[in-house]
Amino acid sequence: MLHVRRAADRGAADYNWLKTAYTFSFSGYHDPDYMGFRDLRVMNEDHIGPSKGFPKHPHRDMEIVTYVLSGALEHRDDLGNVSVLRAGELQRMTAGTGIRHSEANPSAEEPVHLYQIWVFPDREGLEPGYEQKAFPEADRQGVWQTVASPDGRDGSLVIHQNVSIFLANLGTGRTLERSIAAGRHAWVQVIRGPVVVNGEPLETSDGLAVSDVSSLSIKAEGPSEILLFDLA
């Protein structure tokens, strides 16, 4: 079964300094048909204006993954982490028993474009933690690059859930396959497109929920980047 979540149908908000689109219910946007998919709870696409950001705020019992597409994002938390996340880098924050953090655009001129992703952890009460890594684009040309996994394989971020996250870049006309184990599910997020997935045409920022399917065939109709979640 394939279920398309069109970019144009997402929830949206414009706070002047922040323009955001919600794949699933979040903040003031609520749709009972889109409360998440399996252990994937939040898929927000954010554009943050220069010198703006989210002031320090708390989270608990959530795995939060951020992927910066362009610009830069400054992270600060009460564990003492201070870092700048640049285009092509990902971070994983384990909120666990509780963490306070802020995320801001350090540039006075350039906006920052990012995805913020929340995944339910495999258990409550984890020790809070933070991890950040750069994943070279050259290492995902026409192949799946593991960027997060339960065991940190292939140098990926460690996520505390039975979920693996992959990135792939495809040139026009290229096709990439992905098998899905029995009982597993997948979510495809098109970072940039267009692509065709198992005959379903998708554009930039579209999402696709996948269940009861043994394999995916993704064909790029133009230069494309795909974010893929392998979910229990």
The helix-and-strand class reads mainly beta
How many strands, which pairing sense, and closed or not: the largest β-sheet? 7 strands, mixed
Sheet with most strands: strand arrangement: 1-20-17-22-15-13-14
Quote the distance from N terminus to C terminus: 15 Å
Q: Level of helix content? A: under 10%
The unreliable regions are none
Tell me the number of strands.
22
Number of helices: 0
Shape, please? globular
Report what the structure shows.
The chain is an all-beta fold and about 230 residues long. Helix content is about 0%, strand content about 55%. The chain is built from no helices and 22 strands. The protein has strands at about 1-5, 10-15, 20, 40-50, 55-60, 65-70, 70-75, 80-85, 90-95, 100-105, 110-120, 130-135, 145-150, 155-160, 165-170, 175-180, 185-190, 195, 200, 205-210, 215-220, 225-230. The protein has a seven-stranded mixed β-sheet, with no helix packed on it. A seven-stranded antiparallel β-sheet has the order 2-3-4-11-6-9-12, with no helix packed on it. It is globular, with a radius of gyration of 17 Å. The protein starts with a strand and ends with a strand. The relative contact order is 0.18.
